[in-house]
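User: Can you recover a sequence for this backbone? Please restate the input before giving your answer.

Assistant: Of course. Working from this structure:
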């Protein structure tokens, strides 16, 4: 499932949803003592389905043959995708949002951060715990994915308070909101996808701490000329590569560049690009097949 998900994300998907028959077979009451009644929701009874969602600007029939070829080729690596069928269909934004809401519940993503869906009630359970309200909509990055957790952990290690931060590929806006909750000063959030920008703005509006975050559509950092203390990017490895020189140009000396969304086989390529640009690596963390890098831009005194 992870291999297929990676293939779909590398093809440009905005996000993926996994339905695994075993998840339904092993359902147990959650901590509130409730359990989903399988008769009330559609579910598969065998195997797994990985659904990828692409924006309307992507002509999916054009990339479908490549996806099918890569899925079939998994057998060469000892991963049998049988039956490995690949199909496509149009879906409305409303159906996407409904799919999220069935499975999205409060999640403790770091020691002090808990992400709560906008339609659920939750009260902090420990001193210092920050609660972030989120409606994921069509954006990828709700705090439940390893790449988002790694990004949040990286932010916790570099934020002292009052910094100027840029969030590249903001998606749901979760990293920007979390950074404000951790004490960052000014935050600029950018995403290429207008749908993600609207989703991020809706999430900012749910969190009073995020009221002054600037969110806008932009292609990475093209045309952006500023000097930030922190730049964070939870995006695909292939997109991180062209971002590296842009991040260096928009980062103060002594600042930090946090990247995530890096799958195993792309890690060294991304690492080499960051080092070649003159950064020093201060932290490398991994969760499953995913990697995150915290890089430091040295000052003249370093």
């Amino acid at each position: 499932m992870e291999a297929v998900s990676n293939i779909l994300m590398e093809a440009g998907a905005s996000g993926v949803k996994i339905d695994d028959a075993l998840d339904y077979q092993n359902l147990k009451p959650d901590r509130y003592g409730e359990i989903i009644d399988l008769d009330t929701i559609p579910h598969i009874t065998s195997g797994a389905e990985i659904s990828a969602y692409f924006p309307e600007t992507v002509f999916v029939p054009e990339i479908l043959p490549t996806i099918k070829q890569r899925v079939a080729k998994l057998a060469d690596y000892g991963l049998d995708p049988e039956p490995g069928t690949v199909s496509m269909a149009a879906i409305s934004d409303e159906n996407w949002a409904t799919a999220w809401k069935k499975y999205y519940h409060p999640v403790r993503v770091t020691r002090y951060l808990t992400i709560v869906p906008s339609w659920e009630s939750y009260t902090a359970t420990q001193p210092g715990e920050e609660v972030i309200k989120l409606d994921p909509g069509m954006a990828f990055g709700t705090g439940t994915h390893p790449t988002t957790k790694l990004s949040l952990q990286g932010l916790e290690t570099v934020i002292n308070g009052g910094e100027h931060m840029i969030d590249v590929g903001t998606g749901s806006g979760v990293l920007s909101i979390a950074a404000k909750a951790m004490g960052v000063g000014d935050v600029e959030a950018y995403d290429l996808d207008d749908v993600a920008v609207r989703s991020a703005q809706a999430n900012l509006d749910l969190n009073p701490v995020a009221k002054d975050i600037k969110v806008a559509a932009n292609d990475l950092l093209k045309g952006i000329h500023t000097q930030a203390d922190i730049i964070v990017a939870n995006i695909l490895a292939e997109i991180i590569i062209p971002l590296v020189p842009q991040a260096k140009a928009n980062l103060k000396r002594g600042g930090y560049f946090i990247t995530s969304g890096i799958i195993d086989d792309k890690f060294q390529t991304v690492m080499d690009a960051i080092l070649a640009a003159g950064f020093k690596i201060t932290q490398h963390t991994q969760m499953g097949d995913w990697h995150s890098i915290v890089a430091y831009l040295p000052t003249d005194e370093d």
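That completes the design. The chain is about 30% helix and 25% strand.
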